[in-house]
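Task: complex structure prediction.
Instruction: return structure tokens for all chains below.
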Amino acid sequence: MPHTLTINGKARSADVDDDTPMLWVLRDVLGMTGTKFGCGLGLCGACTIHLDGKPVRSCITPVAAAAGKRITTIEAVGATATGRKIQQAWIDLEVPQCGYCQSGQIMSATALLAAKPNPTDSDIDAAMSGNVCRCGTYVRIREGIKHAANAKKGA
Amino acid sequence: MISRRQFLSTSAALGGGLLIGFRTSAAAESPSGAPFAPNAFIRIGSDGQIVLTMPYVEMGQGTYTSIPMLIAEELEVDLKQVRLEHAPPDEKLYANPLLGVQATGNSNAIRGSWKPLREAGATARTLLVSAAAKRWNVDPASCRAQSGEVRHAPTGRRLKYGELAADAARMPVPEKLVLKSPADFKLIGTSAKRLDTPSKVNGSAVYGIDARPPGVKIATLAQSPVFGGRVKSVDDAKAKAVKGVRQVVRLDDAVAVVADHMGAAKKGMAALVIEWDEGAHAKLDTQQIADGLEKATLNPGAVAQNIGDTEKAMASAVTKVEATYQVPFLAHATMEPMNCTAHVRKDGCEIWVGNQALGRAQAVAAKAAGLPLDKVVVHNHLIGGGFGRRLEVDGVIRAVQIAMQVDGPVKVVWTREEDIQHDMYRPSFFDRISAGLDAKGMPVAWNNRFAGSSVIARWLPPGFNNGLDPDTTEGAIDLVYALPNMHVEYVRAEPPGIPTAFWRSVGPSHNVFVTESFIDELAAAAKRDPVAYRRALLDKAPRAKAVLELAAQKAGWGKPLPQGVGRGVSVQHAFATYMAQVAEVEVSKDGTVRVRRVVCAVDCGTVVNPDTVRAQIQSGIIFGLTAALRGEITLKGGRVEQSNFHDYQMLRMNEAPAIEVHIVKSGEAPGGMGETGTSAISPALTNAIFAATGKRIRKLPVANQAAV
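Output:
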């Protein structure tokens, strides 16, 4: 039986096995390729999405567990004030290099900032260490989160 | 029309406008008599749109921004007015001037483009000015190009480039070309915003893995777990029963499951029962390979460099220092796992991929599909991490082999496990190195013999001559230090059962670790400060000396540190860039190494985009630290033991050091930036561990060797 999902505010459906990871529903079934595949085991964070605003690794989140929840992906995270500020900070500070992991980084950073508007360095370590960046943009991700936090105060 | 200098041609563009063809090479002139063959193009349309077709690919290094900057600077247009087009695969047209094939690698895009791109831009500007002057019947010297138009100040007249492009195509190529003086640069040397960033923050950037031609199916594959093995039998009954699985494809040495989506393909793969004929390498392990390399260094190799009489100098030395060094195999682990989409029909083949060597991708696809080259269309994409992995085309061959058995397009996506276990690896090396010191502890003799794989010998055979290639020895020869007697030999020793490939910072990734560790050993043997010792050997290398002094000063070299904390330094001249790094590390009793801070001073000649230089150094340092601290691929029973990020671990946010980059102002030609940070960090790290603990790390990775 097809699963009914609420993705970025829209109703979508996917006729796949219950245990199919959300990652593949998004990318292959629905054609939303902004969410990236990195490891398939929840080890790298490239596939991070939000379920009811909380960051989860979509590569290990079965579609059945996402049904009935508010699913947000990188394609729509900019619709929230926090997401937009993170994206702008990423542009202002030229955070991305190859850019492949950045969808996941932005989803994790947005969730962090939404929960903690003024994160400390250890908050950033705790929230962001699940996201691998092979280009090593960590220095700028850290600065970017602080930059967005400061922009928030000004807003 | 071709100019007498034969470095560019001008003609009318299709659909009107001006087309300038040129070669991206510092030595661009065609041999006399040979027809001029451009490998890059600027097109100025009648609508004013400027399009640059260029052979380099973007993989995070910022080349899609820094290369157009060169054109925009001379053309006097805003960077936003220059649109980029991927060059289609064509080895003849787009061969990289420093590599000889169409490829992006070896940190040479800016090095190969610096002069010709500015010349092409200046030519276009000169032609547009001449066309305007002719139309107004005024002296060209009274006209100025500015902000995408030509202006005649005395009369206030102005014409946009688009209005002049068709006329410009008919003007003679200027005999004399005046490049802008660096003092007049408006763009070069500024941190221009990267053109690819906006699409990388909202999910709209399209990488190879995101290609979705209509009707595409998704496949994942299992290749023989032992390199060189074969499929013996496949039981696919259970796999075919998985919802969404469409087909199981069997190749000689791999099996693929084709499905509606990757979730089904992976589930189907897990349900397959494959029996392998493991072949000749079933009992291979990494220790055997390491032993083989060690043995290989006992025999003479090809002489890579010889200065003076090392044997004689060694015999008369007061002190002799000897050591052996080892570096492991390394995987690339690009964040975007290997993938390639292929659609093979009887009369043609289409490929969707992100690759650093497009011409090669096209050639292997044609061969695998049994089609002529011109029947293969390759769509290149953004690259989710290259690091050398995507200079290889094994994944393209695989995709074509699978697609030949599938009706319609198929995207072959490797799992992370497949990506790590069927990478082509940075070779392991064994080095036997010695030096003789005089009474003051200064080196009078330097002798280095190392053994390992030559990637060039496979990848670019003409580049391997007399037992040597320029990559494998870079960083081992032409050292910055004044060494009166020096002898370096390379023994080519190809490991059985494991393929090797380029890996970010290539030859220097191995050689700089060895030479900069060993010079540190010599300083220790001489009981001298590591910075002072190096500085004393750099009188004839002022640029190297300057970066060393700058890095030391900014790092607070010599200032006291707490117990268990140490500073280490490295100096490097590679990819035509000078660099020094100081790493500050903290080692706990259990051997855990925490890198607190890295200070880097760089002289890469003229800086095109300083923010990109800083970004590349930050990136290179993290990449190099990841490898030096724990990167190691090992074989057991012929199989790669590591499989995913739990056992092939990456440096993460909580471990990332503070990184400071200091750029030396220079008017020299630009040097390469993509790789230098990676090779310079490993010796800075291990020298810092020595300073903190007294333990000399001669074998990478560091792992738990620093434990007391």
